[in-house]
Structure formats: structure tokens, C-alpha cells
Write a structure and sequence with these properties.
alpha/beta, eight-stranded mixed barrel, binds ligand C2E, binds calcium ion, EAL domain-containing protein
Length: 279
């Protein structure tokens, strides 16, 4: 038993070394990626369930790593948060999105609203609001065209520190959406305490519709509650017509998911907008 314990320990330290090296390489590459502009923004359409038109998009970052290909955000956003790179990366995303959205509103869809994912570290950055204000002005984009998506985890921080940030962002005129709704804790009390404009029902609920009765009941209840509290609802992860019809009948306003479109590069999204002109 002693022998195997020691072997396990050796195995474990080797494994740790490999992971540390991997992590170090990732860090180095990420810093380079920012300088060399290797990031891209993809856009996934949001569809109005009432008019079937594209009313918005969610901006989703990708990393085009030379010689490797497209790397999804789950593989580099968490580590970027840990090493502090999320602030410059997040600012880069906001700048890209504001410029692009301004162009699209002018040439294709005047009421387009684009949402950007904001990590808790960015939300805690005291310069966030001023940066957004400047970026909107530089891009000539009205604040109502920008939405920030935050997660429930953020709301577990100190309310005295968080509320002023919410207030200054909302005074600017941008809207705030609560992402992955239903997967965190004590969600309901947060809805009372923070000024939130939109709820995004997590795709884990939508995924089980219509087979799973609990998901059906919960989704109904979330939509009714949000509407009663004056918040709009976006369903994410909509993959088929049954889900879309269920959501329309339940009073949901917007949907997003593979059923309509995957996230697309700017050029691909623009093609969709070109066919979206007529309202
Ligand atoms: P999220 O905010 O929950 O984004 C939705 C994710 O669901 C996206 O994955 C999208 O591609 C995927 N998705 C969309 N429709 C469907 C569907 O019908 N079925 C299924 N199974 N999946 C669908 P993606 O692009 O890989 O992004 C993963 C996560 O990375 C995002 O989750 C978000 O938390 C984070 N992220 C992406 N871009 C940014 C960014 O610019 N900043 C920050 N801080 N986080 C980002
Ligand atoms: Ca999101
Ligand atoms: Ca989400
Ligand atoms: Ca998520």
C-alpha cells in the first residue's frame, strides 16, 4: 500500500508539472494573441418570437490561433480571468461590438441591439462605466443598442459595491440581462434587489422541452414571473420547432439557438441582416 501511495504521488506531481507547463504556454500565447489581434467576435442572432425578425445578437469571442484553428471561449476565458487579461480582452470586445453594431444599425437594422458578456472581474473594474461611455461616443452608438450579460454569481458579491455600478450603467442608458438564469442560487431575491431588464433562461431548461414536465412547468413559471416584474425574456439554446412554439405560446419575447442559427462571423451575420430589412 505504501509503495503504491508513493507511485501515485509521483504520478500526481508529474501530472501537475505537465499542467503547469500547459498553463504557462497558454498564458504566453494569450498575451501574444491580444497584441497580434488573434481574437474574433462571432454573432448569434436573437429572434423576436412575435415578428420572426432578427432584433439582436449576442457577441461571442473566439480565438483564431495560427496553426491551430478556432478556440472556443470556455478554453481561454476562465484563465484570462485568473491572470487579469480579461480586462483588456473585454475592452477589445466592447470596442469591436460598438463599432460593428453602429455600422449595422445604419445600413441594415436600425433597432438592432447587441449584447456582450461581462465577467465579474470586468464588472468590478471601476473604469468600466467610463470606458463604455467613451466607446459608445466614439462609435456613435446610442446606449440603448448595447446590452450587458452578467451571471448570477456576480450578484452574490457585496450589494453596496454592486448597486452603484448598476445604477451608473443604467443611467447611461444601456440594459442589463441576467444570463444562465435558473442555474445559480437564490435567484429570486436578486431580482428584487438589482435593476435587471432581461432574463435569459438557461439552455438546460429549454433542452428538455417538451419531454420533461418539470422543465415545462419551470419555464412557464419563469416567463410569467419575469413578465409580471416587467422584465423581458430571452430563451437560449432553442434547437427545434417544438421548443420555439412552446416559448411563443408561453409569452416569451425572444429566442436564440441553433434552430435559427449558430454564432456566425460578422460577414455571415451581415448576410442574415441583409434579408432582415423588411419588417
Ligand atoms: P454563454 O454566455 O451562455 O453563451 C451561450 C453559449 O451557448 C455559446 O457558446 C453558444 O455558442 C452556445 N449556444 C448557442 N445556441 C446553442 C444551442 O442551440 N445549443 C447549444 N447546445 N449551445 C448553443 P460559446 O460561444 O462557446 O461561449 C461559451 C461561453 O463563453 C459563454 O456562455 C460565455 O460565458 C463565455 N463567453 C463568450 N464570449 C465571451 C466574452 O466576450 N467575454 C466573456 N467574459 N465571456 C464570454
Ligand atoms: Ca451570454
Ligand atoms: Ca447563457
Ligand atoms: Ca454560460
Amino acid at each position: 500500500a505504501k509503495e503504491s501511495g508513493r507511485n501515485n504521488y509521483q504520478f500526481f506531481t508529474t501530472e501537475l508539472n505537465v499542467r503547469a507547463q500547459h498553463r504557462y504556454a497558454l498564458e504566453t500565447n494569450l498575451r501574444r494573441a491580444l497584441i497580434e489581434q488573434e481574437f474574433l467576435v462571432y454573432y448569434q442572432p436573437k429572434i423576436s418570437l412575435q415578428t420572426s425578425r432578427i432584433v439582436g445578437a449576442e457577441a461571442l469571442i473566439r480565438w483564431q490561433m495560427p496553426g491551430i484553428g478556432l478556440i472556443p471561449p470556455d478554453e481561454f476565458i476562465p484563465i484570462s480571468e485568473e491572470i487579469g487579461l480579461i480586462l483588456p480582452i473585454g475592452r477589445w470586445v466592447l470596442q469591436q461590438v460598438c463599432r460593428q453594431t453602429s455600422y449595422w444599425r445604419e445600413h441594415f437594422t436600425p433597432d438592432l441591439v447587441v449584447s456582450v458578456n461581462i465577467s465579474p472581474k470586468q464588472f468590478q473594474d471601476p473604469g468600466l462605466c467610463r470606458f463604455i461611455e467613451q466607446t459608445l461616443a466614439e462609435s456613435n452608438l446610442p446606449p440603448c443598442a448595447l446590452q450587458l450579460e452578467i451571471t448570477e454569481g456576480l450578484l452574490m458579491g457585496e450589494i453596496e459595491l454592486l448597486l452603484p455600478v448598476f445604477e451608473s450603467l443604467r443611467n447611461l442608458g444601456i440594459t442589463i440581462s441576467l444570463d444562465d438564469f435558473g442555474t445559480g442560487f437564490s435567484s429570486l431575491s436578486y431580482l428584487q434587489r438589482f435593476p435587471i431588464d432581461n432574463l435569459k433562461i438557461d439552455r438546460s431548461f429549454i433542452h428538455k422541452i417538451p419531454e420533461n414536465q418539470d422543465s415545462v412547468v419551470l419555464t412557464h413559471a419563469i416567463i410569467a414571473m419575469a413578465n409580471a416584474l416587467g422584465m423581458s425574456i430571452t430563451a437560449e439554446g432553442v434547437e427545434n420547432a417544438e421548443q420555439m412554439l412552446f416559448l411563443t405560446d408561453s409569452g416569451c419575447q425572444e429566442m436564440q439557438g441553433f434552430y435559427f442559427s449558430k454564432p456566425l462571423p460578422a460577414t455571415g451575420f451581415e448576410k442574415l441582416l441583409a434579408n432582415n430589412r423588411k419588417s
